[in-house]
Write a structure and sequence with these properties.
alpha+beta, two-stranded parallel ribbon
Length: about 110
Amino acid sequence: MLVDFKTFLKDAVAFSLEINGKVYNGIYNEDHVDHKTLPNNVYAYDVRDADNGKKFATLEDKVLVNFGGSVIFLNKINFGKKDYLSLTSKNVNWEINKDYEVLKGTALEIARRF
């Protein structure tokens, strides 16, 4: 379901991504965020569900098949030479965190940019 940014925030949870030791904190929602409604200087990506039973396989600019949700970060994610980031790589760790304080800090910073 495509939702605007404000609707996306209502049911969002904290999402942490670590790539080669660098941590990116963001917010995740199972809905598809409409990129046209995003504030400036935030970056939205889609996650692709895995076929092998793990929750997520990749982080991409846009996912249409096996869509698993959207994530909004304060920083741009570098995919390197690929058009996606494998979330199952040895140098990549991620987690969904339902801790309200973690979510609040990230969401407040994103809201400041709105």
